[in-house]
Design goal:
Blueprint lengths: L11 E6 L2 H10 L12 E7 L2 E7 L1 H5 L8 H7 L4 E4 L2 H14 L6 E5 L3 E5 L10 H14 L4 E6 L2 H10 L4 E2 L6 H4 L12 H9 L5 H9 L3 H8 L10 H9 L16 E10 L2 H22 L1 E12 L4 E12 L2 H11 L9 E13 L7 H6 L5 H12 L6 E4 L9 E4 L20 E13 L6 E6 L2 E14 L13 E8 L4 E7 L16 E8 L1
Parallel strand pairs: 2-4, 7-8
Antiparallel strand pairs: 1-6, 1-7, 2-3, 5-6, 9-12, 10-11, 10-12, 13-14, 15-16, 15-20, 16-17, 17-18, 18-19, 19-20
Length: about 525
């Protein structure tokens, strides 16, 4: 039973969009359920390593034998006329995010329940709609108008509301006075939101309903037995005891509310459609100026900008721009977009233009250099990187940064040009490194007096080199925290041949270390990794 409390009892609305991906596809095609393109067997698929797999099938497809999780090849053996359409998980998640913000019309906050659900806190709100029944009816009506199939439920906890919306009767309500465990006792264990492998274990143990789990918990040693079985599973989705306690309210469940943010937006609805580049640049300059004023008022700078152009015939063209650092400069924005508008097809004319900052960061006000601005001298590093990125591509400009590893091929990584360097907890002190490293260490054949002695001669790329000077070795042990136990250590040498050419080579392993392969009888391997000055 719920403990008595003077606080207002919590009420959670669970919204399960049972066919979110299919409903989104259907809306995009402009057809109603069972009509048009949706009347034939259809399935949304995802490419996997073993071939296309079905994510969801429509009613005609399910009637033909296709269902979620089935491989497309197997489904077509049962239903040869099944039509396969690639799914769009990113688009589905974006729709879910928009629905979460829209669903706050029924409560002060809402949270996403991926991949196809929402949780809305309606505590002390239902009376504004005339009671919880009318609130559910209103929610069902509005979701149906958006072309979404939903199942709704209201309960004192998020776990109970989720269980009822997925496995209970449609649009049901669990009052605050009800015994949650007793009311939900006949639901399957899948109502606990557990991982598939945990559900398989519970079924093998004969636990198929919530009543059976409750009976085991009430026993003298039942809860301890389940706890021992899942003692190493601290993830709630992998521990039935945690999920059961969350469902009944014995343990609070943290939820992450969706906080919608109004991003800076500038828009122009043109009196007459424009087709020429000069007019397009003029409107873009006005939009950039409006965007800068909006950003100044917020104390922010844009990191990602999206320019949308609506043509008279309904076609929409979007050009995106991602900046190296937060920017609040109208001229700089116009220069970057100028290169992206060269291939714009205006058709019969563009009637609406919209500039939106989809990513903004805090940017403090700064005093500009009046003299430099007057003479047009000076270009900031961020502006230079933005222009290079716009011309060469988003991944063409990067910089190397040190990485905490003693292995030469792991001692640096590439990152965005203006991203802060990672903090080094310990300073790595290396011996002198060659100026040029090969992209990948290349094997060489080495002649030496003894396996542990200095190299005398080596063959690389079809040429034999006589060694006249040797410096080393510098020993580098394997990184035991990420390598296998059979990884061999390295001894590096700086060598010079008879023609004065210098190389950086290493011996991979030691004789008799027991970590060699059968190919060379356990002898060390030799590689050249760099060229010395």
């Amino acid at each position: 039973m719920r403990p008595e409390s003077s606080l207002i009892p919590r009420r959670i609305l669970s919204v399960w969009c049972a066919q979110l991906a299919l409903d989104r596809w259907r809306t995009g095609q402009g057809c109603k359920p069972g009509e048009g393109a949706d009347a034939d067997p259809l399935a949304l698929i995802t490419e996997t390593a073993h071939g296309p797999r079905i994510d969801v099938a429509n009613a005609a497809g399910r009637a033909g034998g296709a269902h979620a999780g089935m491989m497309l090849a197997d489904a077509r053996t049962l239903c040869p006329q099944l039509r396969a359409v690639p799914g769009d998980p990113a688009g589905d998640r974006e729709l879910l995010e928009k629905l979460a913000a829209w669903a706050m019309r029924w409560g002060p906050w809402s949270a996403m329940d991926p991949p196809d659900g929402l949780l809305v806190d309606i505590t002390a709100v239902a009376h504004l709609f005339g009671g919880e029944k009318r609130l559910l009816a209103d929610a069902a009506h509005h979701f149906t108008r958006r072309g979404l199939h939903v199942r709704l439920a209201v309960a004192p906890t998020a776990g109970a509301a989720w269980a009822l919306s997925h496995y209970g009767p449609p649009h049901c309500i669990l009052s605050a006075e009800d015994d949650i465990a007793e009311r939900l006792a006949d639901l399957p264990v899948a109502a606990l939101r557990l991982d598939d492998d945990v559900l398989a274990v519970l079924r093998r143990l004969g636990l198929k309903t919530l009543r059976q789990i409750t009976n085991v918990e009430d026993g003298e040693t039942g809860r301890d037995a389940i706890q021992r079985r899942f003692r190493n599973r601290r993830n709630p989705a992998a521990n039935p005891l945690i999920r059961m306690d969350q469902l009944t309210g014995r343990v609070p469940e943290p939820l992450l509310p969706v906080v919608p943010q109004a991003m800076p937006l500038a828009q122009r609805r043109l009196a007459e459609p424009i087709r020429h580049r000069e007019a397009l640049d003029h409107v873009l300059a006005d939009l950039a100026a409006d965007m800068v004023r909006d950003l100044e008022g917020r104390g922010q700078g844009a990191r990602r900008l999206e320019l949308g152009l609506w043509r008279v015939d309904g076609e929409v063209t979007v050009r995106a721009l991602e900046l190296a650092a937060a920017v609040r400069d109208a001229d700089h924005i116009c220069r970057l977009f100028a290169e992206k508008l060269d291939n714009i097809d205006a058709g019969f004319g563009i009637e609406t233009m919209r500039l939106r900052a989809s990513w903004a960061e805090p940017l403090a006000m700064a005093q500009g250099d009046i003299e430099a601005a007057a003479h047009g001298h000076g270009t900031s590093l961020a502006a230079c990187i933005d222009r290079l990125t716009t011309r060469l591509g988003p991944r063409a400009v990067s910089r190397p940064v040190l990485h905490p590893s003693h292995l030469p091929e792991r001692a640096q990584r590439w990152q965005a040009p203006l991203e802060p360097e990672p903090v080094q907890q310990h300073e790595l002190r290396f011996h002198a490194r060659p100026l040029k490293l090969l992209d990948r260490a290349e094997p060489i054949s080495v002649l030496y007096a003894t396996p542990d002695g200095y190299p005398r001669r080596f063959q690389w790329r079809g040429e034999i080199h006589e060694i006249v000077r040797v410096e080393g070795p510098e020993r580098i042990a394997p990184e035991w925290w990420r390598e296998k136990s059979t990884t061999r250590l390295r001894d590096y040498y700086r060598i010079e041949d008879t023609q004065g050419r210098r190389y950086w080579i290493y011996r991979h392993g030691l004789i008799g270390d027991g970590r060699g392969n059968d190919r060379n009888g356990g002898l060390p391997d030799w590689y050249v990794q760099g060229l010395c000055a």
